Amino acid sequence: MTFGRDKQTSPREMAMGFLARREYSRAELESRLARKDVAPEEIGPCLDRLAEQGLQSDARFAESFVRTRVLRGQGVRRIQSELFQRGVEQSVQRQALAEVVAQENVDWFELARDTLARRFQTPGDTPKERARRERFLASRGFEFEQIRYALSHL
């Protein structure tokens, strides 16, 4: 199936092609369809129908996204930032985070420690080394208290 905009490929078929590979947020699908030269007035109704039929769900996308990011060793701040960039509402973000934390028993402090341990052997002997480890965890989206915990328990 071709994903370029031609006479045979409907917006629904294109969207279904994207969704066949992975979950997408509504905003991501809007953007992708617009890049394929789908008329803006066609995109909204198409995505509304997909959502009504349960084929596209921001909640399902967010939950899947959070789960994969936790497995990669990322913290709440980074996960929320990336979900925001993908057009997911804050209420959906919070619900997805709560679901994954409950289902997977996520302890953000231990996740920060495990993430640090995968990259570094020690908390750092010099202030410069310690600062490097702090920046690493901060860039992964961990909060200050989680970073302190990770450094003290490495």
Could you walk me through the main structural features you see in this protein, from its secondary elements to its overall organization?
This protein is mainly α and 154 residues long. It is 69% helix and 0% strand. α5 packs across α6 and α8 crosses α9 (144-152).
| CATH-defined fold name of the largest domain | Arc Repressor Mutant, subunit A
Can you count the beta strands? 0
Helical fraction equals 55-70%
Biggest sheet, open or closed, and with what strands and sense?
Answer: none
Please provide a brief summary of the model.
The protein has 154 residues and is an all-alpha fold. It is built from nine helices and no strands.
Secondary structure layout plus pairing:
Layout: H1 11-21, H2 26-35, H3 40-52, H4 58-71, H5 76-85, H6 90-104, H7 108-119, H8 127-139, H9 144-152
Helix pairs in contact: 2-3, 4-6, 5-6, 7-9, 8-9
Index terms:
Arc Repressor Mutant, subunit A; 154 residues; mainly alpha
